[in-house]
Amino acid sequence: MLSIKNLHASVEGKEILKGIDLEVKPGQVHAIMGPNGSGKSTLSSVLAGREDYEVTDGQVKFNGKDLLDMSPEDRAREGLFLAFQYPVEIPGVSNINFLKTAINEIRAYKGLPPMEAKDFLKRVKEKQALVEMTGNLANRSVNEGFSGGEKKRNEIFQLAMLEPTLAILDETDSGLDIDALRIVANGVNKLRSKERSFVVITHYQRLLEYIVPDFVHVLYNGRIVKSGTKELALELEEKGYDWIKKEFVEV
Amino acid sequence: MLKTSVKNKTGTNSFPLGEGWDGATEFQTLLGKTFAAEPAWLKEKRKAAFDEFLRKGVPGRKSETYKYSDLKKIFSGKFTAVHNGQHKLDIAINKISVSKDSIKLVFVNGWLYKESSLSAELPKGVVVGSMAADALFLQQNILEKNLSSTASTEKDAFIALNTALWCDGAFVYVPDNITLEKAIEIIHICTGNEELLVNPRHLIVAGKNSRVQVIEHSVSLDTQKQVIVNSVAEVKVAGNAHVNYYKVQDTNKNIVHLHGTYAAQEQRSVFDTCTFTLGSDWVRNNLSIALNGEFCESHLNGLFITNGSEHVDNHTQVWHNMPDCQSNQLYKGVLDGRSTGVFNGMIYVARDAQKTNAYQSSKNILMSDDATINTKPQLEIYADDVKCSHGSTTGALNEDAMFYLRARGLGEESARALLLLAFANDVLETIRIEELKEYLKGLVEKRLTINNDRTQ
After folding, report:
1. Distance from B363 to chain A by nearest Cα, in Å?
2. B100-111: b or e for each residue (b if 16 or more CB lie within 10 Å)?
3. Does A57 touch chain B (CB under 8 A)?
4. In this predicted structure, which of A161-165, B147-151, B424-428, B445-449 has the lowest mean pLDDT?
5. Chain A nearest CA to B445, separation (Å)
6. Using an 8 Å Cβ cutoff, are B72 and B58 in contact?
7. A102 with A112: CB under 8 angstroms?
8. Is the CB of B410 less than 8 angstroms away from the CB of A50?
């Protein structure tokens, strides 16, 4: 599904990603952990197509297609979803209106007619329940005046609405209290399927207690320096990132 | 000849009209023919105004108030002032009108077009008609009392020019305690294939505790040459009256708008105005509101969308002359191409105007590197117990928001349109006439999504 090979990327001339390799197969959940400044958010931004980042080497295939060659909207239309670490507030644009436009543009890309209004509303109702979101929140302007937890829930709500095949969660746990974290994680777990994969980017092991990954990778200084199963996350929790840093320096 | 008779007292701050217009001769012709039957007081007023205009001249770029709007360019060509109303329209008014339900007054090149001005059942005493017919012959007392009462010729050269040359315009009189349910739509149409100077003059008199809504809608049909519309509207808002005044400017490239709206409010009155400039080559809007009674409320909103080499200049003045009044302004602009915009907002608070609340905000989005906007707030506060604020922001479209929308599958164009519509919506939502609101939402959406060159 997602195949990253030797990915190098820089921002304003400074190299942040220094050769990333990652294979994600359908239905898998991969966690990417790492200390601050290791390149976690850069990786998600590059995958989603943010223009501030320059890919200097390597390739990314998404379902066999060259992902890096696509515009951000085409990546989304191909089934990629990024849950933002800092969702943007967009006053005056209603959540619902925006999602309707998004869904219909994705459908148009696939050669499908616009979604029937009643089907759309049904989906809204269903997916809102998934993240325990009130109707009011869905009708408000995108993220405007939302609390941190509401913003993250809204990201997962959008994920549920757009039904991507690959979802990248960029530090979705940051700024969440334990209740909000549980709601968000439950939402994600309900969206797991044989076809849908997740890349969960996080600083802390805490989120992985709720969203149990198949694989854990440690990102440090722009490279994946360690990969393992969920036990690796526990080891990191126990020993901290200094352990990795030390080991990496020694190598 | 005008060009030789000008005494240009203000030196480089102004210039006489060029060789393209023999104003003095035209003015004499008008006095002898079009204005011949007018009462002496009006003819005197016209003469004095014309002299005032000659003294003032056309403001040059060194004049502070017209600094960013190059009038020399506008007045350099040839043109003639419109003397009569002999124009034929071959378009149905309901194709142009913004509101089916409104009471319509149609003007073609400054003259009432009777064929399309629909008569309506009006409450007793209400006059909705024209300056040349209704005001001048039937309501001369009201005219004499109110003409030039809010738009003083000393204020501005173009008020003087209009006061000298106006032939017709809308005349609305609403007596005390009357509520006019239907909105009045003044449709001003420019048409023809010659260079013209048109001077519409509107007078709205709202009696005590009355309610009236006016839409001043400017359009153009097939104009091949430059038409200068030097329009002046005077609005008198008596105590406890509510007046809504909407200006919609939606014309083609050849139209130059020099619009002045001058309102005066008495105590506890409300004046609500909104200016939409959605297409025109060159626009200058002067809006001045005098709060002459206590507990008045004014709302001044505006939205302009420019493209190509268009120029839109909004100058507002709010005169807080009395205590306990409130004024609120929000002007928004979306500028693309090489277009230029100006917002200059003056708030004056007199020494006795304590407890004044005056707010002003100007927000602009530049869609291209070549578009420019000059904004200037001007606060003159002489009272010490007031709340006044102003703010101005100018920037590109929020890139983070653009990326967010695109990352959800929206194409660049629809993402941009969604954000711009949201930006414009604040101003659109202030419209109190549903039909007008819907009409303008559609028009704004069209302007923002289609990168059209508006050649009509």
Report:
1. 14
2. eebbbbbbbbbb
3. no
4. B445-449
5. 14
6. yes
7. no
8. no
As given in the structure block, the two tokens for residue A175 are: 């700024």
Shortest distance, CA A83 to any CA of chain B (angstroms): 10
Q: Rounded to an integer, what distance in angstroms lies between the CA atom of residue A174 and that of residue A33?
A: 13
Q: Can you read off the two tokens belonging to residue B178?
A: 């009357």
Q: Decide if A101 touches B, using CB distance below 8 A.
A: yes
In this predicted model, what pLDDT tens digit does every residue of B91-127 receive, in sequence order? 888 888 998 889 999 999 999 998 777 667 899 999 9
> What's the whole-model pTM score?
0.87
pLDDT band at B23 (very low <50, low <70, confident <90, very high): confident
Could you tell me if A107 lies within 8 Å of chain B, comparing CB atoms?
Answer: no
Residues of chain A contacting B422 with CB distance shorter than 8 Å: 90-93, 141
Of A49, A101, A109, the CB nearest to B414: A101
Please report residues of B whose CB lies closer than 8 A to that of A162.
408-409
Which residues have CB under 8 Å from A92's CB, separation 6+? A141, B421, B422, B423, B425, B426
Q: Give A226's contacts (C-beta < 8 A, 6+ positions apart).
A: A217, A218, A232, A244
Asked if B70 has any chain A CB less than 8 Å from its own CB, the reply is no
Longest dimension (CA), chain B: 71
**Per-residue pLDDT at A247 exceeds 80:** no
What CA dihedral angle connects B94, B96, B100 and B101, to 10 degrees? -120
> Tens digit of pLDDT for each residue in A92-101?
899 998 999 9
Instruction: Dump pLDDT digits (tens) for B198-209.
Output: 999 999 999 999
Whole-number pLDDT of residue B99: 86
**What is the spatial distance between Cα B172 and Cα B211, in angstroms, rounded to a whole number?**
12
Chain B hits for A142, CB-CB cut-off 8 Å, are: 404
